[in-house]
Amino acid sequence: MSYLALRGRCAGCKAKISLRYPVVEALTGLISAYVGWRFDFTLATVGALIFSWSLIAASFIDFDTQLLPDDITLPLLWCGLLLNLWGTYTSLESALIGALAGYLSLWSVYWLFKLATGKEGMGYGDFKLLAAIGAFLGWKMLPAVILLSSLVGAVVGILLIVLARHGRQVPIPFGPYLAAAGLIALFWGEAINRAYLQLL
């Protein structure tokens, strides 16, 4: 509201304010409202808000710096495990397996790619972020998260190369796609898994 009232400029020095600020605030507000509507007044709402806010922050940091900070990913992982002590989203066993499988799956891809090409295809922060998503949602959600994030990442990457002349050697952060897929899985993961299993 203040951004619109000020017409995108600082009230004091009249410097231009980046559109990013109201976009992030609006996105966070909309997702938070949906979380509250979806989970009602429960422990799942508190956890889903922490999950959503952390993913939004991590996405924009990764977009800017190509880094996913441990200060976000590691507490998020432990928070997921703690919440699932009471089976908030899945069983503790599924959450533990999800954390391990999330980390090891991308870790394996990283090393296979590095051995095949001699280059690093992703950062260690991506492993930790997927481990945190697995800790929250359980191992059964990981295939959907990996598939969705890979599809979106591939499409956006191709569009950037073709339309924006983004150099192929310029790295594209994978964290935002993992985060988006994690939110989709939080809200609609069960339905996606059912549809996926029916197709198989």
What would your notes on this structure say?
- With 200 residues, the chain is an all-alpha fold.
- 74% of the residues lie in helices and 0% in strands.
- It is built from eight helices and no strands.
- The protein has helices at residues 2-5, 20-39, 43-65, 70-83, 92-117, 124-137, 142-163, 175-199.
- Helix 4 (70-83) packs antiparallel against helix 5 and helix 4 (70-83) runs parallel beside helix 6.
- The chain is globular and about 55 Å long.
- The N and C termini lie far apart (48 Å).
- The model has no long low-confidence stretch (mean pLDDT 90).
Query: How many runs of DSSP E, i.e. beta strands?
Result: 0
Task: Give the ordered list of helices and strands.
Answer: HHHHHHHH
From the N-terminal CA to the C-terminal CA, the straight-line distance is: 48 Å
Strand content: under 5%
